[in-house]
TrEMBL record:
SMART domains associated with the record: AAA
Keyword field contains Nucleotide-binding: yes
GO MF entry, a single one: ATP hydrolysis activity
Residue ranges of domain ABC transporter in the record: 5-241
Superkingdom, natural source: Bacteria
Protein keywords: ATP-binding, Nucleotide-binding, Transport
Designated name of the protein: ABC transporter ATP-binding protein
PROSITE patterns: ABC_TRANSPORTER_1 (PS00211), ABC_TRANSPORTER_2 (PS50893)
InterPro entries named in the record: AAA+_ATPase (IPR003593), ABC_transporter-like_ATP-bd (IPR003439), ABC_transporter-like_CS (IPR017871), P-loop_NTPase (IPR027417)
SUPFAM superfamilies membership: P-loop containing nucleoside triphosphate hydrolases
Cited Gene3D superfamilies: P-loop containing nucleotide triphosphate hydrolases
Length: 350
């Protein structure tokens, strides 16, 4: 099962350039979270700070009760064993086969026999759908396969926390859907805490239990997906709708004159372009494939949302209730379909 990651007052700069400041959030145990934001807002920097590759100027990162910003190098080494990381490009060794790439963490950090290594590697290879390709070199396979190989490598040490840096980068929509489904299936199987760093709207709307957004060097919001998907916060609403009108500009932040002109155009009913999807309904979250375990994170997440429901704006409450009713209806249909299949299976006669 995953562990909680609690970030408080985190501030990071490179020289005089401030990347983000005073970021506080908690990645709930075993749930899937997504961190969004326009390009250049420091999402990947945040991920590297969580595993101690970059050191913040202020704040704390508490992983399983240990503040990695204050611990010793030895303690940090042990804490990092809790993490599995999928980097943007897969970060595979080009001269090694996929098998050796995936086996690398086991050979580097454990004393397992080669027979044990092979058993674990082949289990992960099968999990990510790469059976038959394990002897290929990274340069001989597609980008989507390299992503899956990188994910398999991130899983070999049975991490309790999985960090994914733009898993959709360079992939077409179909391969992105496969990777997204794989993350949900993995969460159902091992109940790991997962953080996905992305700017993909479809991933944000269908995969995570929780969503956060970085903008103007700050964390604008972080919370249950249902809250952000129904939010009236201008930055969140513009980003998720893919709309040109709003605070986000080509170079991140628009000046006041441009923002005022666009506000006047919007008031006059002039379209701002972009997708401008309707968010009065919450799109159904991706579910584990048939045969997978029940995703415990979804149960915990729903309980938390129900507890906080009365504190949310009316439109959010209505959208969440409608979404939950639709989920319950789908679950009832699936149970009925499964029961009908069982009823039609003949009972063998002794």
């Amino acid at each position: 099962m995953g562990v909680e990651v609690s970030v408080s007052g985190l501030t990071k700069s490179f020289g005089s350039q401030n990347i983000w400041r005073d970021v506080s959030l908690t990645l709930p145990t075993g749930e899937v979270s997504a961190l969004l934001g326009p390009s250049g807002t420091g999402k990947s920097v945040f991920l590297k700070t969580l595993i101690g590759l970059l050191h913040p100027e202020q704040g704390s990162v508490v992983v399983d009760g240990t503040d990695i910003t204050q611990c010793s190098a030895k303690e940090l080494y042990e804490i990092r064993k809790l993490f599995g990381v999928l980097f943007q490009d897969g970060a595979l060794f080009g001269s090694m086969s996929l098998y050796d790439n995936i086996a690398f963490p086991l050979r580097e950090h454990t004393r397992k026999k080669e027979s044990e290594v092979r058993s674990i590697v082949m289990e992960k290879v099968e999990m990510v759908g790469l059976l038959g390709a394990e002897e290929k070199l990274p340069g001989e396979i597609s980008g989507g396969m390299r992503k899956r190989a990188g994910l398999a490598r991130a899983l070999v040490l049975d991490p309790q926390i999985i960090l994914c840096d733009e898993p959709d980068s360079g992939l077409d929509p179909v391969r992105t859907a496969y990777i997204s489904q794989l993350l949900i299936d993995i969460n159902a199987t091992i109940d790991a805490t997962i953080l996905v760093v992305t700017h993909n709207i479809n991933i944000a709307r269908t995969i995570p239990d929780n969503i956060g957004m970085l903008f103007r060097k700050e964390l604008v919001m972080f919370g249950p997906r249902e809250v952000l998907l129904t939010s009236e916060q201008p930055v969140v609403k513009q980003f998720l709708a893919g709309d040109r009108f709003g605070p986000i500009g080509m170079s991140e932040e628009k000046d006041s004159a441009v923002a005022a002109a666009e506000a006047a155009m919007a008031a006059a009913g002039i379209s701002g372009g972009g997708t401008k999807d309707d968010f009065t309904e919450i799109i159904a979250q991706v579910q584990p494939n048939p045969g997978m375990p029940v995703r415990q994170a979804a149960i915990r997440h729903r309980r938390n949302v129900v507890e906080m429901l009365h504190t949310l704006p009316r439109n959010a409450q209505e959208a969440i209730r409608a979404s939950m009713a639709a989920e319950d209806a789908r679950a009832a249909e699936e149970r009925a379909a499964a029961a009908s299949v069982i009823d039609t299976v003949p009972i063998p006669v002794a």
